[in-house]
Structures are given as structure tokens and as C-alpha cells.
Design goal:
Layout lengths: L1 H11 L10 H8 L18 H15 L4 H12 L14 H36 L6 H13 L7
Amino acid sequence: MRRGLVVLLLLAFPLGAAGAIPEEEVLDVAAQLRCPVCQNLSVADSPSEMAKEMRGLIRERLERGETREEVMAYFVGKYGEWILLSPRATGFNLLIWILPFAAILAGLVGVILVVRRWSARARALPAAATPASPDPAYLERVRRELEGSEGGLRP
């Protein structure tokens, strides 16, 4: 009975695959790290030999039972915070995460203020732009002067 159970366990969990880590998990960790050779690519996307070695090291560490955070901490310890493609949201790096949103918010507030000012001017302008009716005495004086000039008033 025990032998049958052992055989079933060995068939269910082959010895070679006991520490096997799926490629997706390795690539997921590698996608968060910057390649030291081609610095604009992640370790997952880089074709360089260094990136291949780093992916192998990630696989080894994950197979040894280290967590993703421990593997990331290893590379940060070796290369510094620079190795992370996305900076951590702590300390001075927090500005990198906050400033873009603050700039967008400030821009929106500025646009709202300008639009309100323009609409207030547009409402106030028609009332001020309507000319007052001319004084009847002034109109009579202009008419007399035009009649007295050479040629008089022309119809």
C-alpha cells in the first residue's frame, strides 16, 4: 500500500520538476529590472548576454525558494535603486510619482480660472459696449452746421 502511494506521488511530482519555476514568473520579475547593458530595456526584453545571465540568476534564486521581493532586493543591493525600472514610492522618489499629478491638477485649475474670467468679461462686455443714445441738442447742432456748410445737406 505504501509503495503504491510513493509511486503515485513520484508520478504526480517528478523529481526534476520539484523546484521548477514557470518562465512567466521569471519574466515577470525580470520585467521590473533594468538591463545594465542596454539601459532602456528591461531584463526580460533585452537580448544581451548580461540579461540572459540575470534571468538565469533570477530563476536560480526563485527555485531556491526566495520570494520575488527578496530577488528584487538582491539586485537593488548589488546595483542600487537605479536597477528598478519603476522607482519605489518612498522618500525623494515620491516626488516622481506626485509631481505629474500635481502639475495636471494645477493646469486644470488654471484653465478653469481663465475660462471663468473670460465668461465674466463676455457677460460684462455687451452692457458696456452698447452706445448711449446721442443727446438731441447735439444732433440738432450738427444738423445746423451741416446745413450751413458749402453745399448744404445732401439727401
